[in-house]
Amino acid sequence: MKHYIENDSGRRKSGRVTLRDIAREADVAISTVSGILNDHPSCYAGEPVRQRVHEVAQELGYHPNLLYRGVRNLSTRTVGLIVPSLFVHQTAICVEEVEAAAWKAGYHLFIGYSHNDPAKVDSLLRDFISRRVDGLLFVAGYDCGRLPELDYVAASGPPIVAIGHVPDYDFPSVTVDYRQGGRMAIEHLVELGHRRIGYLTVKRATRSASAKMAGFEDGCKRHGLRPQTVAVADPFTMHEQIDAGAIAMRRLLEADDEISAFCALNDVMAVGAMRAARALGRQIADDISILGFDDDPMGECLETPLTTMSYDAARRGSAAFAMLERLMGDEKLESLHLNLPMRLICRASTAPFRQPQMSTELPCEKSIPH
Q1: Is 230 helix (H, G, I), strand (E, B) or coil?
Q2: How confident is residue 339, by pLDDT bands cut at 50, 70 and 90?
Q3: What one-character DSSP code corresponds to residue 341?
Q4: Residues 242 and 275 sit within 8 Å (Cβ to Cβ)
Q5: What CA–CA distances, in Å, run from 240 to 32, 135, 339?
Q6: So what's the pLDDT on residue 149?
Q7: pLDDT tens digits along 277-319
Q8: Beta strand 307-310 with 343-345: parallel, antiparallel or unpaired?
């Protein structure tokens, strides 16, 4: 039986009634129509909206495609993973753990790189959904805002677990307590006697970068310190990150040459900061203490091994897939959110504060008192 629907020009066309047709007539999102008609438990539409959608569906003569539903409900034993990049070492470890867990459970993993582009995130989601993946993992980067495909997934799409915090959506998630890490970094430096501490970051901050910054400010406030920060242009490649760290270090020292300790957004920026400090005649640990985040392996191999904040990246990946596997099996989660703690790895780049010494070679020049 054919159904006739008026198109935008007012003429009637023949064809099967679609969810898009119902959404247009009911003035709601397609994802809302799908969630209501499929009675999806994650659809939170109110009763008036549900009634309107059902009435419109009945008026238009909508009949669900039962064959399509049957195909959709078959498992493809595939999972889609969206990640900004594998630039950050601990993200790479997390993804490797996801792949290993998926393979062990009999799933193949599709990986898509978003490069923090909302349009690409939407496109990758659309592609994975069209491939009938059984579940989705989303590694959060910059705040993408609300996206049509994320709305669809939230309403009636495949199960999804976020690795990181995704604003506007209450997806099950595995996060890292970066704010705690920022506080711990300040505690470590204050215990070493430092009172003037700088923070090196970027202008367009991810959720994790913002949390680190908030923890840094928390720690400074607790000890009555004035936060001193500098944010540089958004770097992406490793070389850009190193250059950004060097630029940020120079700017902070130009603004206040009595700063004796620095926290960097990540270990790669910390490497650039160390390079700039040496170029300015400062000795790492003797004159300046530097601390990074993310426990990149190169930090341990530097001439002065880098103190860093770390977390269990492998557990982050395995926990995320374990949550997704339960959801794909229609099992309930004991907890929707897991927040992993950070830990300090203390190396040689941080040392007790040393009062600047008076110059003996040039009596007319004095060090500025701390």
Answers
A1: strand
A2: very high
A3: P
A4: yes
A5: 43, 35, 30
A6: 85
A7: 999 999 999 999 999 999 999 999 999 999 999 999 999 999 9
A8: antiparallel
